[in-house]
Amino acid sequence: MDAEGPLALCDLCLAQVCCSLDALCSVRADGSMSLVWAPLFPQEMADQLLQKMTTKGILNDTTVGIFRNCKELRLRRASIQSSPVSAEAFRLALCPHRLLELDASWVSGGLTVADIISGLASNHECRLSLQRLSLSGLRLDWESLEEDGGVHVGFSSLQGLRMLNVANTDLSDAVLEDICTLPHLETLDISCSSISKLTALFKCKNTLRFLIAHKLQQLDMSPARLLFVFNQLHALRHLDFSDDHFAVDDSDGRVGDETVWQLLEGTPEVLPSLVSLDISGRKRISEAAIKAFVESRSGLVFLGLLATGVSSCDVLSSKKNLKVTGEADENQVCEALRRYRDRECFIREALVHLYNLTTNADKPQPEMLKLVVSAMQSHPTSLHVHLVATACVFNLTTQDLAEAMSVSLLSSTVAQLLYAMKTFPNHHQVQKNCLLALCSDYILQDVPFDKYLAATLVINWLSSHEDPTLQRMAVAVISILVAKLSTEETAQLSKDVFIMKQLLAIVQQKAMVGVVDSTLKFALSALWNLTDEMPAAARNFIECQGLELYEEVLESYYSEPSIQQKVLGLLNNIAEVEELQADLMEEDLLEHILSLLQDSQVEVGVRYFAGGILAHLSSRAEAWTLEGELRTTILEQLHDSIMTWTQLEREMVSYRSFRPFCPLLQPCQPSGVQLWAVWAIHLVCSQHTSHYSRMLQQEGLTELLKALTAHPDTHSDIKELSDRILCMVEEHQSHSGAFKSQTEPRNS
């Protein structure tokens, strides 16, 4: 079982509700949804349903309408983060609820801070109940706010607010003045805003405990004045005055840097309650200043020093209870990835150091991998983040490291790799990193992910790259993925002539120099699986001159049974398609295949596939276009040769279904044709009894075999093998009671 365990029943139920909204809802006149019937939801579950709709990306003006039902769906902690919700939909669906928390960060759809404030303030209960409000990434549009009954509507209307996030907004000094009048304000995030003065903070100096002021590039205050403001915040316990070291040059951040230096050099009487300080990205900080600051504050629990150059200061390692973000070791880097998830500048910095620290990783680090995946998810459009993160993923999953991690973690990791490949199709290094990480037998075989998408992405990448090492990996990945696709997915993929041409080009490239390597074998396996019971793919193969190429390969690789098996396996797939059999009616080709069947020095695996081609082609006397004598010889040699074959222990072939065998098992068929079919069925049934016994039953072949054994003209050799197969099926039924589902085998 997955180390993280199965999903909670509540999660599964909510996910099912999300998938079934169309069936569960009616549509109002304005196009919004309303649940046809709804029980009284447990309050927390209503919050969870909204959260689930948000994370699944299905929350919008239409679906958010179900929350207009305030009696059955009572929201308290609402998240609509990054959802396309308009002002009107927000007002109708969320504002009537007595909310405690609202996260409307980065909402699209035109919703502004002014819309949210006026909407929330219209609910008198909400004015007092709302404690936490996140509005990061929104436009204020403050001028549009109107007075409500003669009373000014602003942040100060929400008297219960304790936490406010207005980072990444066009926050002005005037609006900050309004915010700071809130009587219970404890946490304020004004990062990346347009603030130029912080003097408004005097108004909340007795309540403000957490101030996050990252990257205030328009701040216009002297270091002395800034420090004076900070020093007045008597309740302040956490101060984040970090900066984006990528965005500023040495002169831009000088005032902030000087302020930080003075703070570090100051006495403990400055901000006496401070237990957490983040100055990551600040320049001109000395180790001596850090040492003095840390030693003078025994209650310090966090210090942010990423990209400052001083995180290796000796005093930091002596403080066991002090958490530090920096680059000195794995703990500092991972702390940075945890704390700075939404800050691209610091995530980039931390990932670079993580990559260097994990280059020779020799033990599994699942928690570290989670942090890398989270970073990729938090910055979906950042090339810089994905470039380094994909390299980190490779470091953390290479060799046998992946096998010690949970399947769910690896599944989400691969999903992010595929997203990176899709998002940055023209960036060579990102594509290479993803391919290196994907080229893991364990991940490809045992981890669930969208294998169809992966196959198409890798094939597209392959078309524009000829590096031999990467080509080998790409073809190996494609070969394994194609074998894992469902019948429907294989059919969809096999329609693409481009894919066929790419793989055939690799076969031709290798065949021209006569090389036998894994790239050639993987390409042949992929083509074999692509054409398995796929007439359209088989036709594409022929139209792409694949038949001529395979005839050459068959002759030039006469002494390479592993190559011959794959070539003959694909020709078997063509021979199964009645309308394509005429393309194989070449005397030289069939005589060569017949010689392989007859040669006792040739491996049984090669003779088996040779026999399959000949059995299918000779089974239809009316379609035979060559000399009748050749068909007679083939039928005679089929029976005689098969009777000399020894049972194979190793797995050599697999079948999607036994449908192609039905015509061969008819009582009217020559014994050589029938014998090859029953020998083939016996072979796979003896190796995968459960899977193929079920297939025989479902497709009606047990009845065909019974009819064959009962027919007076059936050869005794065929009756004997058929009886063995039927015994296997009956024995399996009696032991298992019911057929269990197994992974479908594939050709390799």
TrEMBL record:
Pfam families: ZER1-like_2nd. Residues 375-730 form the Protein zer-1 homolog-like C-terminal domain. GO terms for cellular component: Cul2-RING ubiquitin ligase complex. It comes from the Eukaryota. The keyword ATP-binding does not apply. Keywords: Ubl conjugation pathway. Belongs to the zyg-11 family. This is Zyg-11 family member, cell cycle regulator, like. It comes from Acanthochromis polyacanthus (spiny chromis).
